[in-house]
Amino acid sequence: MRKTIPEPARTVDVIHETEVLVVGSGPGGLAAALGAARAGARTALIDRYGCFGGNITQVGVEGFAWYRHERTVDSEGIGIEFEQRAKAMGAATPEPQSNSHALDAEMFKYVADELVKEAGVTPFLHRLCVAPIVEDGVIRGVITESKSGREALLAERVIDATGDADLAARAGAPVRKAPREQLMAASVMFSMAGVNKTRFLEQVKADPQRYRDWRGNGEWNIETDGKEDDMFSPFLRKPFKRAVEEGVIPASLSTIAGTWGSITDQGDLTYLNLIQLPNVDGTDANDLTVAEIEGRRQAIHAIEALKRFMPGCEQAKLRNFGMTLGVRDTRKIDALYNLTAADVRGEARFDDSIGIFPEFIDGYGLLIIPTTGRYFHVPYRALVPQGVGNLLVAGRSIGGDKISHAAVRNMMCCAVSGQGAGVAAAVSLRRAEPLNTVDIGAVQQELRRQGARIR
Ligand SMILES: Cc1cc2nc3c(=O)[nH]c(=O)nc-3n(C[C@H](O)[C@H](O)[C@H](O)COP(=O)(O)OP(=O)(O)OC[C@H]3O[C@@H](n4cnc5c(N)ncnc54)[C@H](O)[C@@H]3O)c2cc1C
Which ligand 1 atom is at minimum distance from the Cα of 166? Predict the structure, then answer.
């Protein structure tokens, strides 16, 4: 039994009251806040770190639509706006394997600031939400901790976009989390500076890698449905394999492999997704501690291997690590409807669709690239947790099984569920209807007005 101490009860200042409160500002939460504000609700957005953007800006995940090809039928709405706005503000570069732009993780911090400001969303950075305020099974707001101490924010509707369903779980909504050995690996992401772009791209061209090369070991042991195999992938394994063979890095690091994201004219090689750390539960601070330290150690070895065995990287150095460990998979809510593998692979159609997402599946050993025009509907009910009133969930923790998670966790789809949640919260307030019985036609009408594609 662990030793415990009682925490004295205390009175907390209410620092803000609003109509819609969004907690977490990744692609899900940012889209939720913009969707709610543009639908006319007074909206506030909280994040635990000093910037909005979630995994984009805090981890350095830049491949926003790397799945998009000529025949892809893509989502529309705020997700596309993220990409286009970033492009217009010099915060995106052409992505090497698709018809899309990779976001510049650093510049996107500023893009997100501007979007939040323009929409009139009230920002609250540097505040970790530590508890929901729940009365009679209904969420009334949240308690935060920060340099300012403990504070309360009250709201008529709350959207949990923490990625980990922190609020839903603490409010008592049923959630599921696989044992840590079954969760997708976590990653320490990093970027390098000082790469000779010409030499690097010459090597990529001389020895082009394909999605079939993702087959191998560890995390990168991927099945496709065949059509992807001969397509180009910005994949790196050979330099690390050689480094192990030549004793430059330890044999235990034969797991190092993965993709690069973009290379700039200034020699920045970004979004290096090379370090895969299994057995990490992203809701366990001890696991996070171990993984951060181990991930950085492995990244330093990866850089050494690239300097030695990847042409163009000889003079390169570490530019930055992500601000925090990248976590792909933790809690999922048990929603009014939980998406299934059959839904995301079978072009599911739902009357309560709040947006579409292509048949793009990336995870649990499966990679399906949407080169066919196939897509599924994202149902509103997958955002609605059970047992707690006035609460919606947006982003990667919406209800669904493993394979559906490998689809809905993608950032464009998180923006779809986010915009859907934000609009539904605002419409339910305007119509004075509870979230679980909100008029879905009215939600869809507002989503269409905001540029989302529903069918
Ligand atoms: C290494 C890595 C590579 C990936 N590659 C891709 C890719 O190439 N393409 C793609 O589409 N997807 C990719 N993904 C998946 C994608 O990044 C995530 O699934 C997606 O960002 C989830 O969005 P979200 O809004 O649900 O959560 P997040 O982006 O995780 O945002 C959650 C936000 O909530 C904040 N937060 C969390 N808890 C609290 C709290 N208690 N209080 C206050 N704030 C809180 C966080 O700081 C963060 O800002 C990758 C993920 C990882 C980790």
Answer: 41
